[in-house]
Amino acid sequence: ESRAFHVRQDGRTVKKAVYVAIGTRLDGHREVLGLWVGGNESAKYWVGVLNEIRNRGTEDIFIISVDGLTGFADAISAVYPKAEVQRCIVHQIRYTTKFVSYKDIKAFMNDLKGVYQAPTLEQAEEGLDRLEEKWGSKYPSSVASWRNNWPQLSAYFKYPYELRRMIYTTNQIENYNRQLRKVTKTRTIFPSDDALLKLLYLATMDITEKWTGRDRDWSKILSQLCIYFEERIEPGDLE
């Protein structure tokens, strides 16, 4: 996920995105895997980012939750070919509702819940059919955004509730960004990329120092991971 900052470059102020990746280890503890100032966000760019993560020691990724970054899915396939990609449902909902008029938003959202809150994949697909039948002609872009990205939007339906709750949204990163905002809100413009990254790094060290707890359902989540990804988890990984 990204957050925008204003940075001086070549004598002018430009808006730059800073991307952050947060991972959850098999011991249940979270870790910031890196911060990157955006450039040309293509598949080639993301391959470089993911290779950096791998070279730092992240040997495998089971499931990755991501917002709709251009070229990211292709990059994941190249660097972590076994990883499942789940697009953030919260970001998808925000994008979808951009096209819906105020007078229809309540009814539209009620029907949309029948898609992303469905208990099973089959019921979710039935809900998507109903959504398209009712709203497809009036809001084609909204419905098409679900249809066109359905494989990555629906990956979480195969898992139990505890795992779904972890992966269907990038809320962990949003919470982290909220804490960063408290540190950076008084700095409207940064003199350079390095100055920006230095402040974010120091803030990250302070934030992650408080990340001592694990998900309240971690024991159950770990048991589920060991079943779904049995062939990729070695006994030593759990020590």
Automatic annotation (TrEMBL):
<keyword id="KW-0815">Transposition</keyword>
<dbReference type="GO" id="GO:0003677">
    <property type="term" value="F:DNA binding"/>
</dbReference>
<dbReference type="GO" id="GO:0006313">
    <property type="term" value="P:DNA transposition"/>
</dbReference>
<protein>
    <recommendedName>
        <fullName>Mutator family transposase</fullName>
    </recommendedName>
</protein>
<comment type="similarity">
    <text>Belongs to the transposase mutator family.</text>
</comment>
<keyword id="KW-0814">Transposable element</keyword>
<keyword id="KW-0238">DNA-binding</keyword>
<dbReference type="InterPro" id="IPR001207">
    <property type="entry name" value="Transposase_mutator"/>
</dbReference>
<keyword id="KW-0233">DNA recombination</keyword>
<dbReference type="GO" id="GO:0004803">
    <property type="term" value="F:transposase activity"/>
</dbReference>
<comment type="function">
    <text>Required for the transposition of the insertion element.</text>
</comment>
<dbReference type="Pfam" id="PF00872">
    <property type="entry name" value="Transposase_mut"/>
</dbReference>
